[in-house]
Amino acid sequence: MMFDKIFGSSLWPKLFTGYGLLFLTFLYMPLGLIFVYSFNGNAINMSDWTGFTFDWYLTIFGGANSQSTFDAAFTESPDRIFEVVRNSAVVAFCASSISTVIGTATAIAMQRFNFFGKRLYGALLVLPMVVPDIVLGIALLIFFVGAGFELGLLTIIIGHVTFLSSYVFVVVSARLAGMDTSLEQASADLGAGPIATFWRVTLPQIMPGVVGGFLLAFIISLDDVVITYFIAGVGSQTLPLFILAMMRRGLRPQINALAVLLLAFTFVVAAVGLFLRSRKS
Amino acid sequence: MLMLLLAPFTLVLGLFFVIPLGIIMVYSFLEPGLYGGVEWNWYPYNYGRIIGWPLNEYEEFDPIYLKIFLNSVQIALMTVIGTLVLCYPAAFWVARMTGTRKNLILFLVTLPFFANMLVRIYAWLLLLRPTGFFNTMLQSTGVIVEPLDLLFTNFSVIVGMVYILTPFMFLPIYVNVEKLDWSLVRASQDLGANPLQTFRRVILPLTAPGIIAGSLIVFIPALGNFIVPSFLGGSKVQMTGNLIERSFLQSRDWPFGAALALLIMASVVALILFQLSRQRKSDMRGGA
Hints:
The structure holds two protein chains of two kinds. By secondary structure, chain A is mainly alpha-helical.
């Protein structure tokens, strides 16, 4: 390896490896701690291990037998959890589907056509990703209240679409930039119309980008706290807002279990997304 | 065809992005209503209040909001420095690798980016609080007797921010280090430069674009963040984001919150424009 030759000493690679392991520890140790604590039977002090239990996972779904009255007062009913999970799923699915269509259409248009002010327009397209979340959140809140929207799932979906479309646009644009256009020309030469060419040739080629964009949008929507915090109504709590409310009431072992389940789910979706994006077609 | 493809996003951006941001701008110059909402009167005192200007004869000059803003800038800067120090060597570590190992490590470094922000903050609450992991460890090994006050300090807020934003710093630096031209580094060595000189004169300038890009995309979300300080800073550490949140959801002084949000927005825009102009200058120099 060129790098090692340059630094000559054989100590450097060891130093870097050691540092790298520390870096990974920094990234994963805090999350690992939640995982370990989620199985700790000690209800009062999580840092003190008193034995293995599944109770915290069972209590959040309403199935624990060892639930004390204190915990009963703290834990929301399982119906509540199912409701917020359903809200989150509906928002993430609708918002990322709409954003995928909008972002892909925009990416294709920006790649195919030239028009006056294209560079400025391109900058506007990625601006929602740059604006601080809190600014977008309150801007949407003022707008929705002023325009007479009732805050709820619909306003959350609209708010998410606004910035998720930018993410999909960026991911699909990257895919389009690396695409071979000769196949499209061949399709046109062989007499296929623009719509047939799109469905049969273009779309299959950019599909990994489109699916990757969809999954990225899905996770960002599912995880969003700040923007949702401002534009959610009374009856439209999402899972992150639910966890936020739990954290404000105090740290209890049930949060560990819920956090582990959420992490596991997002990591699986993210892994699929990253795999699709890295795959060369 | 072009119109048809661009219409949806243009409509969404116009209605739900450009107009709302415009409304914030207008609101920041309006008088707060007595019971929330706004009165349509010209009212520049929202900005006056930020710099501490007394509103009437009963108030004194008190730049508390300005101080909070400056503290937010300081926290965001420390976050940039923290993520940079952590990620710079790590980027070289990954760039050195090859094949499947490299892909696996890249995957591991990227994955925490997708973990929920609240969960990641929650993890640091578990680590830092008086009965948390660190204090329990230190106490059980006899290093300390009384738990340390690790939470609710600028330090704990910075640690939380660094943890959340590390992937944002890592990726741009990594992309830059990955395409670093090592023959230039070798040339510098051949010409008799010592490792420190090589680093300062060759490696650092060549990786500067990655450092600058990473710093920008860490600084921007750090400056406006209010979730991290509200959990890891408690009532002791306030950031401008907390003030904005409170003006909207508690004190219902929307114009003041809008003015603060514009202050954040203006800082971000100023930074981006500054960076773009620098880039253009260096591009021109490079072309000449």
